[in-house]
Amino acid sequence: SMSIKVAIKKMNLQGLRKKELKVNELMVMKKNRNPQLINCLDSYLVDKQFWLVMEYMDGGTLSDVISKTYLCEDEMAAISQECLRGLDFLHSNHVIHQDVKSGNILLRTDGSVKLADFGLFAQLTPEQSRQSSVVSTPGWMAPEVLTGQPYGPKVDIWSFGIVGIEMVEREVPYWNETPVLPQLLIATGGRQKLWQPNLFSSCLRDFLSCCLQRDEARRWSAKELLQ
């Protein structure tokens, strides 16, 4: 028999809200099969834990990679393309990821890149095309989330723009400041640019600028960025 390596995510089922998140994650993973999304192979209830069995990505997270090495622009472009394909697929199916960050992007040594961690997903309906609950990780949050506006799928694009800055500068903007400060700075229009833009191509600078438009209407969609 063939043996394959898998990853198992173990989650405690204490508290109803958490329980909903876990089931939400499973449903999203089972419903949205795509080469750029982590595949859920199975799930089990073990004692009071919920186990998600997922495909194993031997390259670790993008966050791990960034901490160990400098990426060249071609590598950044290849990773970005795969992530945007995954986001375009989700957004086309009216799903917002809501927690796009380097720690939720997984890599394999064969070059494949996949989005993971669907615990905070929002499924939009024709009646409700905007979300208003504040979830996601502070350093990657879009301005409209921080200021409490209803928001749509483009929050994921802002977050991916922050991932772009991470790939270039190997840290999240403001990450060394206190947690409150990044939120305040983003909400009030603080810096979301590269420290030394002239070291990089105009193509990369334009890409980040299209992702990090404070005005959601002017921010590009995943589909537009892929073109």
UniProtKB/TrEMBL annotation:
Q: SMART domains per the record?
A: S_TKc
Q: Which Pfam families match?
A: Pkinase
Q: What is its EC number?
A: 2.7.11.1
Record-annotated Protein kinase domain positions: 1-227
Catalytic EC class: transferase
Matches recorded under Gene3D superfamilies? Phosphorylase Kinase, domain 1, Transferase(Phosphotransferase) domain 1
Q: What is this protein called?
A: non-specific serine/threonine protein kinase
Look up and give the organism this protein is from.
Loxia curvirostra
Q: Provide the gene name from the record.
A: Pak1_0
